[in-house]
Design brief:
CATH topology of the largest domain: Growth Hormone, Chain: A
Number of helices: 20
Shape: globular
Largest sheet: none
Number of domains: 2
Helix content: over 70%
CATH superfamily of the largest domain: MFS general substrate transporter like domains
Distance between the termini: 35 Å
């Protein structure tokens, strides 16, 4: 896969972009908290780039298929870098900075959709599935590294200098794409098929109206959303159980570590046909360990349970080829943008929904309810696959 120079360029710039994005999220949140002392505003700063993606996919998703992909991806990195630079170099009000981050996030599904369309074009068969796996693993590692780098950079340089460093990484990615990615013309039919807003709304309606596409989207959205809901309660769980200081950080790291291991082992050692048969068992593996939190386990057992739940994220490898085959050729960019924006939106909403149960069931009980949701999703997928 990495021998394909175009994929290698997209892969490396994506890893750098995720690192810079995680760096920006953590440092911007710290900057807001330092300036306002408000935990609520700090939390909004952390999530401001997630929820607007659903609106961006709804209104502008068709642009991923209508505009040249090199220009789109370059523009995306430039906007990300410009937003970070403005926040770092100017003392704009918090509401203006939050609005700027949200505005840039509107275009994220368009830029990621264009990149996903190129990967699907240049990698075929199982290489496409493994390319997605490699990107997921690298993205998880880059996210962890970016969050850790953000904490270190804020401590050493201050939040504004750390934000400026993230902006420089984004601008470097934009330059690499502009100079090294070949220009690819857009099909005339896609470029001239009506207004962007109308085409985006119609395209989303058509994608969600196709039962196979809708089922495969939900099969990728729902399990990760339930696990994200449980993940949002890890800090409260560690505090409520009186676990040693710093335990929450160790527990939060177990999910992405399990995800890395799952993608690596299933992608490397399991054959394609068997991966597709393992989709339901792996989704069940995401939910079953969460049931154990109803018994409020200690730190070691909780870490093992979260590691196992993270391993189940490898179920996505068994859905990639089926999802690509179900997509119409003309709307692939919009479909990949919809997949990513739906994933981010549900992962942003799920912690609030699961957290609302905690006063009624306890923190461990709410995490177990999230596990029941993942198991229910596994049962639903098993039912329609059998039919």
């Amino acid at each position: 896969m990495l021998a394909e120079p175009r994929f290698r360029l997209l892969f490396l710039t994506r890893v750098l972009e995720v690192t810079a994005g995680s760096l920006r999220i953590s440092t911007f949140s710290a900057l807001v908290y330092a300036g306002t002392g408000s935990a609520l505003l700090s939390a909004l700063a952390f999530g401001a780039g997630f929820l607007p993606q659903a609106l961006g996919s709804l209104l502008f998703g068709a642009l991923a298929d209508r505009l040249p992909p090199r220009a789109l991806i370059t523009c995306g990195y430039l906007l990300e870098g410009a937003a970070s630079a403005l926040i770092a170099l100017t003392r704009m009000p918090v509401w203006a900075a939050l609005g700027l981050i949200a505005l840039v996030a509107l275009g994220t599904p368009v830029f990621s959709g264009a990149s996903g369309r190129l990967v699907a074009r240049w990698l075929t068969g199982d290489a496409y599935v493994l390319g997605r796996s490699l990107s997921n693993m690298a993205g998880s590692g880059a996210q962890l590294f970016g969050l850790a780098l953000g904490g270190a950079a804020v401590a050493a340089l201050g939040p504004r200098a750390a934000l400026a460093g993230g902006a420089a990484i984004h601008l470097l990615c934009a330059a690499a794409i502009r100079l090294r990615l070949p220009r690819i013309a857009v099909e005339r039919r896609a470029a001239a098929s009506g207004g962007t807003l109308r085409r985006s709304l119609r395209g989303n309606r058509e994608l969600l109206g196709e039962r196979p596409v809708r089922r495969l989207l939900l099969a990728q959205w729902l399990p990760s959303a339930f696990v994200a809901g449980a993940e949002g309660l890890i800090t409260a769980y560690a505090g409520g159980r009186g676990l040693p200081a710093g335990s929450y950080a160790v527990l939060m790291a177990c999910l992405p570590v399990g995800m890395l291991l799952g993608d690596l082992l299933v992608g490397r050692f399991v054959r394609p046909a068997r991966r597709e048969r393992l989709v339901v068992p792996l989704i069940a593996l995401m939910g079953l360990p969460l049931l154990g939190f109803a018994a409020e386990p200690g730190r070691l057992l909780a870490a093992v349970l979260l590691l196992a739940a993270g391993f189940g994220f490898a179920h996505g490898l068994g859905l990639q080829r089926e999802f690509l085959a179900a997509l119409p050729e003309e709307g692939q960019g919009q479909a990949f943008g919809l997949l990513g924006s739906g994933m981010m939106t549900l992962q942003g909403l799920a912690p609030a929904c699961v957290g609302a149960l905690a006063p009624l069931t306890g923190t461990g009980g709410a995490m177990a309810v999230a596990g029941v949701g993942a198991l229910g999703t596994a049962g639903w997928i098993l039912a329609w696959r059998r039919r």
